[in-house]
Design goal:
The structure is a single chain. The chain is α/β, with parallel strands linked by helices. The protein has one domain: Vaccinia Virus protein VP39 (Rossmann fold). The protein contains seven helices and nine strands. The chain is globular.
């Protein structure tokens, strides 16, 4: 469970890992990570480690959440698209830093659990959708910021097309976990400009919906 000491220790670890943006650190500090952890792992909620949440997905490591959020360079009036709601932890951090978050998840049970957490935490600036993340959310495009929380072999063209001019997408890219890199692409007047942020390890980004989502949808 959460204690002030656990949170302080985690924030210090994030600083050591390169998360220096005070707004990002403040947002992480205000989000109760134990709410997003499965009951069996709740006592590890403030360790700087990824935790399993079922369906082959994980609750991301806080330092990675911090680095990805920092790389987005969010402003308070921005509209952000998140691909891969998962537990909803990264979503909750984003809601503290931008105007509205649109988040897409392909696993119905994970989305239902995340929606319940958003309700409990009274997060009113998040809109959810069950869907294929490769397609983004064209009806709500363009987005100033896009974040992807699973790793495609290459950045889906549909997501790049949904970026606003001057927009930024942050995404882990790579076929295998050991060779993935966190990439930031900024849309400039001269075209997309890409830079590597760090080496990371994410579950692969899967195209389409799982069978159970199709059956119920």
């Amino acid at each position: 469970m959460s204690t002030p000491n656990h949170k302080i220790r985690l924030i210090m670890e994030l600083r050591s890992a390169g998360v220096t943006d005070t707004r990002v650190l403040g947002a992480i500090e205000r989000v109760p990570r134990e709410v997003f952890a499965p009951a069996t792992f709740r006592d590890r909620a403030y360790e700087n480690t990824a935790l399993p949440i079922g369906h082959g997905q994980t609750l991301s490591q806080p330092s990675v959440v911090g680095l990805m959020t920092q790389a987005l360079d969010l402003g308070p009036r921005m509209k952000t698209l998140e691909i891969g709601t998962g537990s909803g932890y990264q979503t909750a951090v984003l809601t503290r830093l931008c105007r509205r978050v649109y988040t897409v998840e392909r696993h119905r049970p994970l989305l239902a659990e995340a929606e319940q957490r958003f309700k409990e935490l009274r997060l009113h600036n998040v809109t959810t959708r069950l869907g294929d993340g490769w397609l983004g959310w064209p009806e709500q495009a363009p987005f100033e910021r896009i974040i992807v929380t699973a790793a495609p072999a290459e950045i889906p063209a549909a997501l790049v097309a949904q970026l606003a001019p001057g927009g930024v997408i942050v995404v882990p890219v790579g076929n295998e976990k050991r060779t993935q890199r966190l990439v930031r692409v900024r849309m400039t007047d001269a075209g997309p400009v890409s830079e590597d942020i760090a080496g990371v390890r994410f579950v692969p980004m899967v195209e389409g919906l799982p069978p159970e989502a199709k059956e119920q949808g």
